[in-house]
Amino acid sequence: MEYSEKVMDHFTNPRNVGEIENADGIGTVGNEKCGDIMRFFLRIENDVIIEAKFKTFGCGAAVATSSIATELVVGKTLQEAVKITNKSVMEALDGLPATKAHCSCLAEEALHAALWDYAKKSGVTIGGLQPPEEKNHEH
Ligand code: FES
């Protein structure tokens, strides 16, 4: 199995690991098959994500996709953040082996779950965002 340099970089030196205290949005998702768990924390101000952190209990690809997803999302508006998918995450990492594609889905789901949590708590609607329960069966 071949990993890109970017995957190895984000796996060995993950960015934004940890928790955000009193985060505006928190999303936790898991993959039943591999048992890996990912949690995203977002700080949001004026509809813009100003900080993102993650905690991932999972494989190397899950750590790398979480790390890159936090980098992708900071500075984005809520509307832009919804458009970040597992494909964006994979592209940003210069690809993932096919058997590891599901790990990037976890990153998309965790991010969208955190956005959903924020939307619910603050009473805003984010166009195009689906409830996490419905999303989990998509990939
Ligand atoms: Fe499950 Fe990577 S093997 S997230």
SS-based class: alpha+beta
Kindly report the average pLDDT value: 94
Shape: globular
Succession of helices and strands? HEEEHHHHH
- Give the N-to-C terminal Cα separation: 21 Å
Task: Provide the low-confidence segments as ranges.
Answer: none
Count of helical segments? 6
Biggest sheet, strands in spatial order? 1-2-3
Strand proportion, as a percent range, falls in 15-25%
Rg, Cα atoms, Å: 14 Å
Total number of beta strands: 3
For the report, how would you describe the main beta sheet? 3 strands, antiparallel
Give the helix level as a range of percent.
40-55%
Bound molecules: FE2/S2 (inorganic) cluster
Task: Output the keywords.
globular, 139 residues, three-stranded antiparallel beta sheet, alpha+beta, 6 helices, binds FE2/S2 (inorganic) cluster, 18% strand
